[in-house]
Amino acid sequence: MSAFPPGVLRPGEMSLLFLLVSRASFPWTRLGFAALVVVSLGLGWWGLMLDTTHVPGRTWYDVVYHDLQLFVMGADPASGGGPLSWQLQVARFLAPGTAVYALFEAARALFTGEIRRFRDRRARGHAIVVGQTDAADTVTAALEAAGHRVLRTADAAGLAGVGLTGATVLYACGDDTTDATANVLTVAEAESAVRRAGRGPDRLYAHVSDPDLGVALQARHLSCAEPGVDFFTLSVIAAQALAVREVRRIVGGPAATPAVIPAVTHVVVVGSGEFAKALVVGLAREWELAGDGVRLVVDLAADDAGRVVEELRARWSPVAEKIELRAAPALGTGSAAVPDTVYVCDADESVSLRVALTATKLWHGGPGSLVLLLDGLAGLTGAFGTEASRVLDNLDGRLRTVTMRDLLADVERAEARAHADMYERIARSVHHVYLRNQRERGVAWGELPAMVRWEDLAEDLRASNRGWVVGLPERLARMGATIAPRDGAPEVVFEGPELDKLAEAEHELWESVRVAQGWRGGPVRDDDARVHPMIGVPWSELSEENREKDRDVVRLLPEILAEFGLEVVRYDESPALLARR
């Protein structure tokens, strides 16, 4: 007799159900297996009905019970041997075989998960994304779109299970709406684990939803010179990417013919959230290089536009100096003219959608002149498709939709990163200021090796700019200063002995970076042989012209930091302290 009472599924039968549920991703295998089960049950029922007709008191319940027992080789009518019908002969082999296959597949599914977790713990060269948020999904999609392997964990407790020590980059993108330091703590925990193990990600990034806090954290981190840790705000990065795309679309890049660019370009930004503010800043910074004297007028349309405009002018020098930013509390109040482009990016995306589809005054521009940000509502972007597939009208080609995921995908990187880190962004700012000043002096694009955009700059020149950023804390320490978010206060001015002391530090930094790149001293400069006459020469022995170049770099320090929303702050402004320096 069986140890399992009627109505209770045996282990083999439980495995059958497990398999049918777990193999949903393989429909043909699942259907084939189901067919075997049905055939086994059918033949067993048929054979048992034929071979047990002589059993006194037999009922159809007994037939069903013995039919199920065939799967575990425990059906009494088929166990005794002797003459059996061909139906039962086939069923008593087919049913156990099906059960064995089910057990095998169940074990394989179980061990496959274990093997996968084992492989994840020992993975190499991958990216880790921590969190279950929209930001985490966006970063993951950007990394995967670039062909990088991404492993995810819900929180810091799962870092070991996703191969922390073998990863190349980690993004902490958890929910920081209630605890602003949540992702910062995740990065701190990951850094501690990496230090203990002696290996791990080269770069650790913490998402900070509050841009003001993000800038403050960046300022503090810049002052301790630990490349590889960074704080970022996804909306800011996406807005900057959109600004780069849009300015190049408007002016056509450095090689554009000035004659085809209008004297004034007028755009409207609808909204005053973080994306909208970052877009205004990004447009101003890009326009510095690409505008070529053309005036950019930006109307910010929002209920609190006046306050936001003043805030942006105070913090970001390009906004105050390079564009004309105007407050427009209501759509259409800033100017009677039809704007060239309207960017609808309210913090509430449902409001943005309503504005774009109901404010008919925005529909009078040319093709692609109405840009709608739909990130949380990204599924709607496909509704505004081509003529053959669209569900919603795109206003005869005037409406363009963008998402943060698409904007991040614009940036192609060989390494596993979704965005440029803080050191590279400031290095870009260094080069940005250099290009702007050279253009103001009349130097043409391509006239010098460095007169190209960052994307086209030689790697050794990029490394020099990065080295400038990494060496910043040491130079600031020489003057008893640090970095803080810009608040519109008067900028620090370097002059006299302090200027010369910092200029000497600039020369030493430049020399150390060049030597690390394989350059050496020599009487005549030879870029191919990496020979430079100023290597090995003390600053005091340089010509006045070359010393003035180092002083120019120091003078530009506040300007460069202002490009990034930062400024130099002295710990002590007392005349006695300044005289001792």
Report on this structure.
- With 581 residues, this protein is an alpha/beta fold.
- It has four domains: 11-120, no CATH class; 122-232, NAD(P)-binding Rossmann-like Domain (Rossmann fold, 3-Layer(aba) Sandwich), CATH 3.40.50; 236-402, 3-Layer(aba) Sandwich (Rossmann fold); 422-580, no CATH class.
- The chain is 48% helix and 11% strand.
- Strands 8-7-6-9-10-11 form a six-stranded parallel beta sheet.
- Helix 2 (27-51) crosses helix 3, helix 2 (27-51) runs antiparallel to helix 5 and helix 15 (422-440) packs across helix 16.
Tell me briefly what this model is.
The chain is an alpha/beta fold and 581 residues long. It has helices at residues 11-22, 27-51, 60-69, 76-79, 86-121, 134-145, 182-197, 211-222, 234-251, 274-290, 305-315, 317-321, 349-358, 404-409, 422-440, 459-470, 472-478, 496-516, 544-555, 557-563, 575-580; strands at residues 127-130, 150-153, 169-172, 203-207, 229-232, 264-270, 295-301, 324-328, 341-344, 370-373, 399-402, 481-485, 520-521, 531-532, 566-570.
